[in-house]
Amino acid sequence: MFTISNGQRAEVLTQALPYIKRYNGKIVVVKYGGNAMINQELKEQVMEDIVLLWLIGVKVVLVHGGGPEISEMMGKLGKKAEFVNGLRVTDKETVEIAQMVLAGKINKSLVNLLGMKGGKAMGISGMDGKLIEAKVKDTDLGYVGEITKINIQPVRDLLEKGYIPVVSTIGCDNDGNVYNINGDTAAAHIAGALNAKRLIMMTDIAGVLRDKDDLSTLIPEITVGEAKTLFDEGVISGGMIPKVDCCIEAIKKGVKKVIIMDGRVPHSILMELLTDEGAGTMVVGDKQE
Question: How many domains does the chain have?
């Protein structure tokens, strides 16, 4: 088993000091979901990383999805999941299942896990305080929501009281309808409304690859303009298209930097924020002349 000496531990902490100073008191939004949530050991490591950041003074907001769990619950209830262009077809019964799984089971289990790791977390959904207002995105998709407004004050209130806000991506409208909101999109809007220093998008691939089958072709940093070129060249394709679109949206809304990283890599959040190595692909605004 690999071990390090106390001196080596002290050296690691010393090297992290400039990064701790950089992020102390700053807001970092973490989008967490999909396959990165399935492995329990990995989930506990992610929660430990978030608690560590919180303890050193980083204001972390955790935005989560839970697509696989929704599909699993639908199966248990005898309902088949249908997707159109990567978006779940969501009828009245399905959105009730999504609300139950996201705002209930997943949200509260993450809050509980953060508490077990020594953090102080509070779970809310996009319906609380009308945090996420939405409308029908496409009538063919049913209750899949398009965000119309973010009322960010509930999240700010929790941050000011010293909590880690844990947000499930369920939205609502003034007529009482409930909507299933894409987690990446919600995280981009929330990070923008908070003017966050960083948005971290945890996914199940390493980042933007010039060759999707070769991890060594990872592109460590791209500007918004370069991303559009990579779209045109077909380098950014498939499921990466909506993720990068969300990154661009967050940058336009005032987020300083957005990271797409492999959430399956242990402690990838700490590698990105507290070392000079970084992790994944960083998306930044176009450089000014």
Answer: 1
